[in-house]
Amino acid sequence: MGAGPAGARAAWVLARHGARVTIFDASHPREKPCGGGVTGRALALVADAIDATSCARTPIHTARFVRLRAGGASARESATVDLDRGALVVASRAAFDAALLHAAQQAGAALEPARVTDLRVDAEGVTLETRHGRRRADVVIGADGANSLVRRRVAEPFRRDQLSIATGFFAHGVTSTEIVIAFVADPPGYIWSFPRPGHLAIGICAEATAGCSSEALRARTAEWIRATAIAPGARLEPYAWPIPSLAVRDAHELTVAGSRWLLAGDAAGLVDPITREGIYFALASGQWAAESLLRDGFASSYSSRVAEEAGRELGRAARFKAGFFRPAFINVLMRALQQSAGVRAVMADLIAGRQGYADLKWRLLKTFEIGLAWRALTSRSSRPAL
Ligand SMILES: Cc1cc2nc3c(=O)[nH]c(=O)nc-3n(C[C@H](O)[C@H](O)[C@H](O)COP(=O)(O)OP(=O)(O)OC[C@H]3O[C@@H](n4cnc5c(N)ncnc54)[C@H](O)[C@@H]3O)c2cc1C
User: Fold this and answer.
1) Model confidence pLDDT, tens digit, residues 238-290
2) pLDDT of 75 higher than 50
3) Given this model, what pLDDT does residue 377 score?
4) For a 10 Å CB count at each end of the chain, is N or C smaller?
5) 42 vs 86: CA distance, rounded Å
6) What is the C-alpha radius of gyration for the chain, rounded to an integer number of angstroms?
7) Beta strands 22-24 and 110-112: pairing type?
8) To which H or E segment does residue 99 belong?
9) Is 195 in the pocket of ligand 1 (CB under 6 A)?
10) Does residue 244 line the site of ligand 1, with CB under 6 A?
């Protein structure tokens, strides 16, 4: 249920292996509030189903990191990281998701363009209510996003402290081949600008419990757009959307499957809390859900696979997060990005989804510039956790 990356990927895998699949989603064609950054690893995963080069997308050549002080960005505080070809594209989610859905339909999945208004799971199967009537299925994959109805019916909805609010603007009429990441101290995180074909997706994200309203965050983004003149003459279309943002313990105790139901993608909480990469995890978990069902008709191996291949990594990211956005670390990082090709290479790999969190800290500390600056910093002050 849901034809985003998670649902479309699950349907494609299942249908290709002869399973009878119906996708429920009334939203297409649609744009999704999203940066649209699709990493090299996500592109590689779907290369067997779609030709991502034929979707509307912007190949990204550079990532510019900026440290914001009061009054906006200054050139002295920015550093540019070159990205390999294919490390990151920024896709129109309308086009990327449509291509995934089309591939699933070509493989034999049926699309029922209806919103599911309710569902009930019993020992024999699942009953789904739609405005076209009642439908019965053996199993449901809840791939219906951060506000998942399936999740609310079969498990607990996300608590507020498990969600971030992302908000900002689509700046129509302006684009680029560069992503911009502007670190902000309060709330700790960054403003991003991701260039899609025909517009920039500009946004900011904060924990839902951080005490910042969506309006205040959006106003801050608007002020950044004005101060940096990044989108001259653009028509600004506002958006706001939740992103799951799990803490360490939540990432280690994911609720993703039970009798006759599985949760994938955002519905399962699978988003990197630092980079906000969710598309890869949605695609991968959709695939794991399908493979688990194909193996034994139920979801027996799915939970352990998600825990091993996603939960552990998301837990590491969650542990890393507080230290990562601390002003002391951002100071060190910005200086090192300006001076060190080694640090720029680590960040390029992080952006491309090639750098895991297990050795991120050590790879950074091993670089001369970060190692030196970090030692100086930690010998002068109480040791900031990273
Ligand atoms: C502002 C923002 C920026 C982001 N930037 C990035 C980024 O640059 N790169 C990245 O990798 N990730 C990014 N993410 C995260 C990414 O958007 C999600 O992780 C990803 O879309 C999850 O895919 P999904 O298939 O699980 O869910 P979704 O893409 O949300 O798809 C869910 C689908 O289910 C449908 N649906 C919902 N309810 C029902 C219902 N009751 N009945 C039927 N259908 C239903 C919806 O219409 C939708 O089509 C960003 C998120 C936000 C909010």
Assistant:
1) 999 999 999 999 999 999 999 999 999 999 999 999 999 999 999 999 999 99
2) no
3) 52
4) C
5) 11
6) 21
7) parallel
8) helix 93-107
9) no
10) no
pLDDT digits (tens, 9 = 90+) for 159-213: 999 999 999 999 999 999 999 999 998 888 899 999 998 899 999 999 988 888 9
**pLDDT bucket at 38, cuts 50 / 70 / 90:** very high
35 lines ligand 1 (CB under 6 A): yes
Identify which of 309, 324, 285 has the alpha carbon closest to the alpha carbon of residue 141.
Answer: 285
Atom of ligand 1 nearest to the CA of 205: 1
Atom of ligand 1 nearest to the CA of 243: 53
Residue 279 beta carbon below 6 angstroms from any ligand 1 atom: yes
294: its two tokens: 């194909």
Which residue has the least CA distance to atom 15 on ligand 1? 278
Ligand 1 and 254: CB distance under 6 A: no
Q: Which residue has the tokens 């390029």?
A: 348
**108, 21 Cβ separation under 8 angstroms:** yes
Query: For residue 254, is it left (φ>0), alpha (ψ between -120 and 50) or beta?
Result: beta
Q: Decide: 8 in ligand 1 pocket, CB within 6 A.
A: no
Nearest ligand 1 atom to alpha carbon 167: 1
pLDDT-derived band at 376 (thresholds 50, 70, 90) equals low
The answer to whether 88 touches 351, Cβ cutoff 8 Å, is: yes
Mutation test of ligand 1: which of 199, 256, 279 has the most ligand atoms closer than 8 Å to its C-beta?
Answer: 279
Write down the pLDDT at residue 366: 81
166 CB near ligand 1 (under 6 Å):
yes
Q: Summarize the confidence of residues 297-323 as an average pLDDT.
A: 91
Tokens for 203, please give them.
Answer: 């946004």
In whole angstroms, what is the distance from residue 299 CA to residue 294 CA? 9
| Partners of 107 in beta bridges | none
pLDDT at 132 exceeding the cut of 50? yes
Q: Is 137 in the pocket of ligand 1 (CB under 6 A)?
A: no
Span 103-121, average pLDDT: 98
